[in-house]
Design brief:
2 copies of one chain form a homodimer. Chain A is an alpha/beta fold and 408 residues long. Chain A is 37% helix and 12% strand. Chain A contains 13 helices and 12 strands. The first copy, chain A, has a 7-stranded mixed sheet with strand order 2-8-7-6-5-3-4, with helices on both faces. In chain A, strands 9-12-11 form a 3-stranded antiparallel sheet. In chain A, helix 4 runs parallel beside helix 9, helix 5 crosses helix 6 and helix 10 packs parallel to helix 12. The longest helix of chain A has 21 residues. Chain A starts with 7 loop residues before the first helix and ends in a 6-residue tail after the last helix. At the A-B interface, helix 2, helix 3, helix 5, helix 6 and helix 9 of A face helix 2, helix 3, helix 5, helix 6 and helix 10 of B.
Chain lengths: 408, 408
């Protein structure tokens, strides 16, 4: 896939040769739609839809309270975490699924503060907003100093302070990739700690967190992992660390023996202490089955196809004169490509009206998501054809395409 | 319902006369089962099962990312909160649904600390464990003093310190009811603040939080509200307070304008600032429809029937010589009755083997849940018949009934 296709026929040939192509049949995609928004909400697999119905009708309706034991509900945070661990390159006992990314960032950053040389919370001003907001809230509660720095200055600030850095591996807007191994070396040298946000990275890159020295991470499961709307996040803690740190939200599901109903808190072994309240079983079960689409899929292949699809977006958009803020080097880029246009919002609406779904991030970025399990080269080719036509004919310049929705 | 029935025929007569009886048909109860565990996991309604399937197949599969707008996903935390508000007796704009009870207790107690005269977190040692554990964790992070007191001593400690008290309205074990209005008077006089846990109270009592002066509360929706396994919790903040307090977990869903993607945190108006991350849509939608079973049901009627069912459990268990730790006065009791027996675990297993499902709380409490929307007087009568038989014949004394499950 080193050569970017220059015709639709070349795209078809790449799709025919694509070893990931058979996985697409597992997805239940709406007819006639080209879905390039997997970086925001992944589509359903056939099996995931069946699973949520079985969980509701058989496990909840029929099994009722017994299903906590008989259907294994109680183990889902750990079993789904274990299933997911390969996708981020860590040991299967070091991941749980619990809560949201926002809540997990709070838990991990709070747990990291006592380990860090300096009580400073560092976040770049280009980070996904919730990462910045959570750092602010934790700073107010804990007394740690809040340090917001410019884009790409996070590691420098970490080096200078030895504080706690919250950092995305893939930037939600630009798709820039952080260098995990190099950053962790600086963290170790400075006495600082990094909490990684893997939300836009998991499922499109060949992540190897443990080999790269990462200690703490959380990430989203409803994007490239296709867990369903608002499915719970995952949380990773390195095995050598998890016995030495505490979750600030010490709920009963993180207790060593929750059904002893004892009065004092005693944390569970390992990462499971970072569970808090009762998990949402319908979403957790759905995610469990959604992850099966990744079974036996090679992560290097995933990353290569993601990169090749992105190269195609960049080559075609270049020809349209559309600037990109995403890296041109595929190895430096995540699973989406962001193209800039001052009328980006309206252009995205015009694409949606033609059955092509990317998304928009204020003020001017059109994001094209390139999930390698179900997006084909011809899909990207056809989407780019429509984008070129919309630009050439100014088809976006209609009042209905400028009306803003609540959620973009 | 002032007279406790003394025969099965009298139970049948009460069921015939019960104005709540028609609601039972909305529930999809397994054949041949008497379900007395609604205080742990409520059963499914037919409509809730249909709703989760529609949300998965139509809204997620077909609508994909568009459903955040077109299916109203973005508004669910507030619309479901508004629907629930009547059940706790507060204004409909003062409730959201978000996260778990554990996470919400953390958020509310942290938000309450700056309002309180004393930086002290008070919790009784008879409280549901997660309430105690969360207070411990928040104490460690915030520096507030942790004060664990004996049962029924929480309000006294509040009076003495002016701290923050975490208190259940209905105790998970004994079913004792707290006096909200009297406690809030003491809180006001002492400069303290109470965070109420409504988990075992909502859906069985005629709660009137705002009239009683309550300021902050959270509660479970998967028990008597029947939202499904692990459905998200609700969170209430009094309207006069919500503009003046901050959630420590300041995630993007609590931001004034989350889709502006601005760098600095600005809280949303009112209680909605206590939302954190992306909500679990499958569970939230299921809960939305589950709450329809309460539509047009009078809360005073709910509380009266709950009390009458509990009176019947107490009368029958008295005759068996089984002690109870639950109040004999129905107006002082929640939606379950706890009977004590040193072999309670095995007795509960023996009941389950006969198709009757109560539950067990270590070390010795058998809890019988009396959800007034689907439990009939004959159900309680028949369950007590079986309990009497199991005790008289020592049918519980078999090895398989002593084998402990992970979840009790």
């Amino acid at each position: 896939m080193s050569q970017t296709p220059r015709t639709r026929e070349e795209c078809e040939a790449l799709d025919r040769a694509d070893p990931l192509a058979p996985v697409r049949a597992q997805f239940s995609l709406p007819d006639g739609l080209i879905y390039l928004d997997g970086h925001s909400l992944g589509p359903a697999t056939h099996a995931a839809l069946t699973r949520v119905e079985r969980t509701a009708r058989e496990e909840w309706r029929e099994g009722l309270i017994r299903s906590w034991n008989t259907a294994g509900w109680i183990d889902l945070p750990r079993t789904v975490g274990a299933k997911l661990s390969r996708l981020i390159g860590v040991a299967d006992s070091n991941v749980i699924v619990a809560d949201s990314v926002s809540v997990n960032l709070f838990k991990l950053a709070a747990a990291a503060l006592p380990l860090a040389k300096s009580q400073t919370l560092i976040v770049e001003d280009s980070e996904f907003p919730t990462d910045q907001y959570v750092a602010e809230g934790l700073s107010a509660l804990s007394g740690a100093t809040m340090m917001r720095v410019a884009e790409h200055q996070g590691v420098t600030a970490l080096h200078q302070t030895g504080g706690v850095l919250i950092r995305s591996i893939v930037n939600y807007r630009s798709s820039d990739i952080a260098d995990v191994a190099a950053s962790e070396q600086i963290a170790r040298a400075s006495g600082g700690v990094i909490v990684w946000d893997l939300s836009h990275a998991t499922g499109v890159l060949a992540l190897k967190l443990e080999a790269d020295g990462a200690l703490l991470a959380t990430g989203c499961t409803y994007k490239f992992l296709n867990g369903g709307p608002g499915s719970p996040a995952f949380l990773y803690v390195h095995g050598e660390l998890s016995g030495r740190i505490a979750s600030p939200i010490s709920g009963w599901f993180g207790h060593a023996d929750p059904f002893a109903f004892s009065s004092g808190y005693a944390p569970r072994e390992g990462v499971a202490r970072f569970a808090a309240g009762t998990p949402g079983v319908l979403s957790l079960a759905t995610l469990d089955t959604a992850l099966d689409a990744f079974a036996s899929v090679d992560l290097v292949r995933i990353a290569a196809k993601t990169g090749a699809l992105g190269d195609l977006v960049i080559a075609r958009s270049n020809a349209m004169g559309l600037p990109t803020i995403s890296p041109r080097d595929a190895t430096m880029r995540g699973g989406h490509v962001s193209l800039l246009h001052e009328n980006g919002y309206a252009i995205v609406q015009a694409l949606i009206a033609r059955g092509i779904i990317p998304d928009f991030r204020a003020p001017d970025a059109m994001r094209f998501g390139l999930a390698p399990l179900y997006v084909r080269f011809v899909d990207v080719w056809d989407a780019m054809d429509q984008l070129a036509d919309i630009l050439a004919t100014r088809a976006w310049d209609r009042p209905e395409f400028h009306a803003r929705s609540k959620v973009t």
